[in-house]
Amino acid sequence: MSIGQTQSIALLGLTGSVVEIEVDISDGIPMYSLLGLPDAALQESRDRVRAAISNCNEVWPNRKVTVSLSPAWLPKSGSSFDLSIALAILIAHGTAPQEPFASMVVLGELALDGKVRSVRGVLPALIAAYKSGITRAIVPAANRSEAALMTQMQILTFESLREVLLWGRTGEHPVAQELDLEKTDVDEYLDFADVAGQTKARFAAEVAASGGHHLLLIGPPGTGKTMIASRIPTILPSLTIDQALEVTAVHSISGALGSRSPMSLIAPIVSPHHTASRASIVGGGSHVIKPGACSLAHHGVLFIDEAPECAIGVLDSLRQPLESGTITIARSVGNITFPAHFLLVLAANPCPCGKYTGKGRNCTCSSVQVRRYLGKLSGPLMDRIDMRVQVDPVSRVEMAQTDLGENSAEIRARVIKARKAAADRFSNDPWQLNAQIPSRELRGKYRPQRDAMNFLHDELDRERITARGLHKVIRLSWTLSDLAGHTVPTLDDVERAHSLREGTDL
């Protein structure tokens, strides 16, 4: 009897566990037995592994093959175990050495011809391995750029099973292309200079980017709501390395890295269609639980156009992550928590026909239809929106101007300056943005000027704002104060913040 051993990683959300793969080859009727709670994709690994071994001119053991994945109680899913199972079989058969593959994790799906295909979740898997004390790993060559982010580990990448076996037997390894972390971000984004007019909406976008405040844009079709929302990432500061790792890990586990460079430091923007289901927004799944749009927008922007057209309950499902910055999905396999700290931008028409603007002469909707349409945005959700901005049609004069306005670089410089002022103020606090200031601190250490607080208390007594609304206005006033260069929010800052929240003129 002979036994081969390798290691891999089983992912449950962003959390990974080291899986010991043991293969026993013994006398008996030729068969293949896979133990350890594998899912359907993992059960099918038998035929992929057998074909890959045979097509690499290796000998498949014509005996009883037992593959055990431990811990046995942990559910395993996906095809990332293929390569590690194949190596364990060849080690048990005596045709591959055990020592080179000891104390390292192996990830990769096998094609029938022996090529190693890319898999999802390489970065979170490597992070889990490193936390378990493992510092070496084998990953597919297609995942090289993602794996290169784990600079603390020795990463070996291979194109095929043949290359892996050659390295194990002789130590020869194909020369891998070195990655330049400074030049891999080649994403192209739009610019705010493309937006004509819309002074109020442009300023609101700047305030949202400076303090992390949520924004609702209301206006008829063709006024530039989508243009403004899609350009907000261009004025956000670059992600830190830790933030970029978090974003890449979430995108990796969802299999969405194809549209984003693993080393990108640009804040992500996710724009799901208004027909998206609740599970696609917050995440879910039965066997493989994937993050939703709110987690893919982590440290970035979640933009939902035609918000009132969303199905009942979809937008309200965002209320919990808007407050906590995380989303927890409960399934039979366990509870999985994904990060979901995002800037929410909603866009809506003023009525079903979209023409209820100005004097509303072209609108064909009744007053009941207008109220019912905007009433689809529930009160509890709207109470969590910091700013509501009316986006009016662009005038002929604004369209005729050759100089449309400031570009993204100029706005971004002011956003970075405002965020630095906030960071200096919060140097001894665990939060970084004005939108994250706890409510208790707003009533003490971060209290605006007295006349400003008197104004808010009067609004609260008249029931024009809620307690949450009062705190939202104070947080917003701190961002306006940072942009204006004030040390403490003044009455003008608070009144302007109140106007932004209520959707009145600035």
UniProtKB/TrEMBL annotation:
Listed A to Z, the keywords are:
ATP-binding, Nucleotide-binding
InterPro entries named among the record's database cross-references: AAA+_ATPase, CHLI-like, MCM_dom, Mg_chelat-rel, Mg_chelat-rel_C, Mg_chelatse_chII-like_cat_dom, P-loop_NTPase, Ribosomal_Su5_D2-typ_SF
Give the highest taxon in the source lineage.
Bacteria
- Molecular function (GO) terms listed? ATP binding; DNA binding
Q: Name one Pfam family in it.
A: Mg_chelatase_C
Does the keyword field hold ATP-binding? Answer: yes
Residue ranges constituting the AAA+ ATPase domain according to the UniProt record:
211-395
> Does the keyword Ubl conjugation belong to this entry?
no
Query: Record's family?
Result: Belongs to the Mg-chelatase subunits D/I family. ComM subfamily.
Q: Can you say what this protein is called? A: Magnesium chelatase family protein
Q: Which organism is it from?
A: Candidatus Planktophila sulfonica
